[in-house]
């Protein structure tokens, strides 16, 4: 039986508090293992052992290794998105400063944990339907955050500026974690593009 032929995992909204706690332990174990050895070396059995969740039970939450990796990446990014969402709702928040803070925080988080950056790159190239679905959900969250941060721009420019910022950030994360750019070079790249995008949007 392939991963796609396996029964669909239990939806998060249908989980009990105890089940949600098990799911969280699984994701935390994935982040720990990826941080230590990288995404390619992760095995479901090790995740089960480290999380204290039986292997058979783990498959009730995630039907494949790839789905588990994608969910762990999404969970790992939640604190940054939550922080920036909160800051962007502050009265008088400056768009340029918000964007710069977000890009810097994102790049520095991947610089501190390059294996999570490697996981991001790996997931972006995956054709696994579960991964594609998770990335689409992450994209929806990212777009919503961009709309909050870019609220001062002309409405018609926001989607284009948001996509441009997301693209340069992904490009810079890839360069950073593959050793083709230092943190300073990656920061200079994303902030330079951000300035041009914001200036162009404001001038339109």
What does this protein structure show overall?
With 204 residues, the chain is an all-alpha fold. The chain has a domain at 66-203: Tetracycline Repressor, domain 2 (Orthogonal Bundle), CATH 1.10.357.10. The protein is built from 9 helices and no strands. It has helices at 17-37, 44-51, 55-61, 65-88, 95-112, 114-124, 129-149, 158-177, 183-203. The longest helix has 24 residues, at 65-88. The model has no long low-confidence stretch (mean pLDDT 91).
Main attributes of the structure:
204 residues, mainly alpha, 74% helix, 0% strand
Task: Describe the protein's topology.
Layout (H helix, E strand, L loop, with lengths): L16 H21 L6 H8 L3 H7 L3 H24 L6 H18 L1 H11 L4 H21 L8 H20 L5 H21 L1
Helix pairs in contact: 1-2, 1-4, 1-6, 4-5, 4-6, 4-7, 5-6, 5-8, 5-9, 6-8, 7-8, 8-9
Number of helices: 9
CATH hierarchy class name of the domain at 66-203? Mainly Alpha
Class of secondary structure makeup: mainly alpha
Summarize the amount of helix as a percent range: over 70%
CA distance, first residue to last residue: 54 Å
Which fold name corresponds to the CATH topology of the domain at 66-203?
Tetracycline Repressor, domain 2
Question: Would you report the number of β strands?
Answer: 0
Order of helices and strands: HHHHHHHHH
Q: Tell me the name of the CATH homologous superfamily of the domain at 66-203.
A: Tetracycline Repressor, domain 2
CATH architecture of the domain at 66-203, by name, is Orthogonal Bundle
Stretches where pLDDT is under 50 for at least 5 consecutive residues are none
Q: What would the average pLDDT be, to the nearest integer?
A: 91
User: What would you call the shape?
Assistant: globular
How much strand? under 5%
Largest sheet: none
Q: Cα-atom Rg, whole angstroms?
A: 18 Å
């Amino acid at each position: 039986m392939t991963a796609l032929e396996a029964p669909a995992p239990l939806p998060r909204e249908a989980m009990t508090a105890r089940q949600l706690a098990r799911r969280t332990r699984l994701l935390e174990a994935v982040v720990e293992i990826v941080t230590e050895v990288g995404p390619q070396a992760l095995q479901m059995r090790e995740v089960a052992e480290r999380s204290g969740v039986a292997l058979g039970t783990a498959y009730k939450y995630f039907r494949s290794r790839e789905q588990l990796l994608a969910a762990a990446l999404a969970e790992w990014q939640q604190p940054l998105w939550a922080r920036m969402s909160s800051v962007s709702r502050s009265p008088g928040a400056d768009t340029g400063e918000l964007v710069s803070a977000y890009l810097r925080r994102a790049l520095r988080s991947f610089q501190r944990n390059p294996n999570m950056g490697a996981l991001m790159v790996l997931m972006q190239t995956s054709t696994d339907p579960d991964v594609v679905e998770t990335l689409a959900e992450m994209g929806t969250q990212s777009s919503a955050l961009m709309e909050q941060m870019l609220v001062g721009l002309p409405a018609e420019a926001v989607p284009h500026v948001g996509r441009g910022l997301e693209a340069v950030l992904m490009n810079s994360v890839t360069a950073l974690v593959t050793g083709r750019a230092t943190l300073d070079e990656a920061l200079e790249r994303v902030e330079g593009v951000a300035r041009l995008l914001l200036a162009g949007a404001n001038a339109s």
